[in-house]
Design brief:
By secondary structure, this protein is α+β, with helices and mostly antiparallel strands. 46% of the residues lie in helices and 24% in strands. The strands form three sheets. It has a four-stranded antiparallel beta sheet. Residues 1-5 have low confidence and may be disordered.
């Protein structure tokens, strides 16, 4: 399994735990609001909003909460204006980190993110230093119990680029703007979809072959994700299978 598939799998597993934290709803609502502000409030005409809307529904965010977020984004309701920000840096062991955030005060968020890097043994970098190591993609997660050929056929017919698996899930990868369409195509083929999202996949990876190294990077990722203004953290690490199993245990 490729490194970016492993990272997506780790993120998927972490997402189940993160769902227990109250911060998740707040972050999803921000994503919906900003998507509506940037592309309009009609999910049928705004692919990003459609993906964020479905992501919020997958996490059981109430419909009326989502609708209010859309209205704040389009200006129908008053609300805080969030600005999109990105940060780049390095975790221990040379792992590249790319962060996407939404903030109402970048003068607060930037120094706080820098402090997290420093405390966890990493370092923040200049814009563009690591972004070139990632590319924007859409991913759709399907249960691993579904037949591979069935998933592959439905995914390719819907416009996907690739299907990879880890035994527990199938990860369908596609161009970012096709995420909603690929998800719909898979569902119309009678296949259950666990989640879909926009992501940044690493084009090259750094292998971590010890539990200590992997945990050091994951501690930084966790600390960054705990920040209210951080929406997504992407890392180009490739964790060895035995190390991943030891961490899971």
């Amino acid at each position: 399994m490729s490194g970016h598939s492993k990272w997506a799998t780790i993120k998927h597993k972490k997402g189940a735990a993160d769902a227990k934290r109250g911060k998740l709803f707040a972050k999803l609502i921000r994503q919906v609001e900003v998507a509506a502000r940037n592309g309009g409030g009609d999910p049928d005409m705004n692919p990003t909003l459609r993906t964020m809307f479905q992501k919020a529904r997958d996490a059981s965010v109430p419909m009326d909460t989502i609708e209010r977020a859309i209205k704040r984004g389009t200006g129908e309701l008053e609300g805080v204006t969030y600005e999109e920000v990105t940060y780049e840096g390095y975790a221990p062991h040379g792992v590249a980190i790319y962060i996407e955030g939404l903030t109402d005060n970048r003068n607060r968020t930037g120094p706080e993110v820098r402090s997290i890097f420093s405390k966890q043994g990493g370092s923040i970098a200049e814009p563009g230093a690591v972004a070139w190591q990632f590319e924007r993609k859409g991913i759709v997660i399907v249960p691993g119990s579904v037949d591979e050929d069935e998933v592959m056929m439905a995914a390719i017919d819907a416009g996907a680029d690739d299907v990879s698996g880890d035994g527990e899930h199938w990860q369908v990868t596609c161009e970012a703007q096709l995420t909603a369409a690929v998800r719909t195509g898979i569902e119309e083929a009678g296949i259950t979809v666990e989640s879909s999202d926009l992501t940044m996949l690493a084009t090259s990876t750094v292998e971590l072959d010890s539990v200590e190294a992997a945990k050091a990077v994951l501690r930084l990722v966790d600390a960054l994700e705990d920040h209210d203004d951080v929406q997504h953290v992407y890392a180009n690490m490739d964790i060895a299978d035995d190390v991943l199993a030891a961490i899971d245990a």
